Amino acid sequence: MAIDVVRSVDELRTRIARAGRVSCVPTMGNIHDGHLSLVKLGLQDAPFVVTTIFVNRLQFGQGEDFEKYPRTFEEDCEKLEAAGCQMVFHPDETVMYPEPQVFMVDPPSIANKLEGRFRPGHFRGVATVVLKLFNMVQPQSAVFGKKDYQQLHVVRHMVRQFSLPTRIIAAETFRAADGLALSSRNRYLSTAERDEAPRLGQALREVKAAVEGGDRNFEALEFAADALLARHGWHVDYVVVRSRRTLLQPEADDKELVVLGAAKLGTTRLIDNLEILAP
Description:
By secondary structure, the chain is an alpha/beta fold. It contains ten helices and nine strands. Helix 3 (73-82) links the parallel strand 3 and strand 4.
């Protein structure tokens, strides 16, 4: 395997000391084209990209899929090398958490809404591991996808509040030809479910088109999207229009909005979002 695989913090710091400007792409592995698009963005910002692969137990709630989360390390490294990534940092739990993690990053109250409402403690685990990874890699920039919009929001806020010397680069959601946002969890879908899965994005596109056409009756638009999905067998957690800046309900003069959706198809939970520029 030609790509440089590093598993300890000391080895990581020794090797990147000679790298100059570094961009970091934090992942949990099971690399797909969406991740590779993040690597390409990182390479536009810095000559050296470190992709981290670590399935973070702290961000999984009780009953979630930590144990069965897909782990495909050899394939991941082949894909990353082909995309131009120079290094993979692949610590195990004894490296990331050599002792019980009693110091935690408590994100603001927005972390308890939307995804946080359905995944209590999720963003606490995300913020804590991202801060640790930033301290280990010490990158000048880091790339996060807009698909996990609330995660991007929380990480940006954390970087700003802690004055971290890392610029956050937001990457557009990478989609399959039929519009489905790429996700490691898509592999859990059956053939019939995979055919149905793009409907989540379709429902969000209808909300986006209506708002950009001047409709600000957000509650009615959200209800219609929810009903559309429910008619086709989805269990909807939420479809909501929010302010991009705060992820709270928009004020009357808010024009930069985002519609976010999360719903289960069978046993697989999918999320998606679309940014909106209201007139």
